Amino acid sequence: MRNRMMIGLAALTFAALGFVALGGGGTYTAAAQTDSFSEGQVKSIEKIVKDYLLNHPEILVEVQEAYERKAETARADATKAHLPAFYKTLTDL
User: Fold this and answer.
1) Once rounded to an integer, what is the mean pLDDT over residues 45-57?
2) HSE on the CB side for 59, CA within 13 Å?
C-alpha cells in the first residue's frame, strides 16, 4: 500500500508540475474551459497554480490521500454490489 501511494504521489507530482511547467497543455486547457479567459489570464492562473504547488507541496499528499479514500470507497461499493450475486451462487451449489 505504501509503495503504491508513493508511486501515485510521484506520478501526481510529475503530472501537476509538468502540466504547469508546460503551460497547461492543449488538452488540459480545453478541459478546463479557459474560453472565458484571455491568454494572459490563463498564463497568470498557471503561474499562480505553479507557485502555490511549489510553496505548498504538502497539498499533493492531501490530494493523494483524498484519491485513495475515494478509490477505496468505490472498491467497497463495487464489492457490496457483487455480494448478493456471489451469495446466490454459493447457495445454489
Assistant:
1) 96
2) 11
Find the farthest-apart pair of alpha carbons in the chain and give their distance in angstroms, rounded.
67
Residue 77: φ, ψ to 5°? -65, -40
* pLDDT of the residue at 27: 47
Asked whether 19 and 28 are in contact (CB, 8 A), the reply is yes
**Which DSSP state fits 36?**
G
- The set of long-range contacts for 62-67, using a CB threshold of 8 Å and a minimum separation of 24, is 63/12, 64/5, 64/8, 64/9, 64/12, 67/8, 67/12
The Cβ-side half-sphere exposure at 83, using a 13 Å CA radius, reads 7
| 3 state DSSP class of 16 | helix
Percentage of the chain with pLDDT > 90? 48
Measured distance CA(68)–CA(73) in Å, rounded: 8
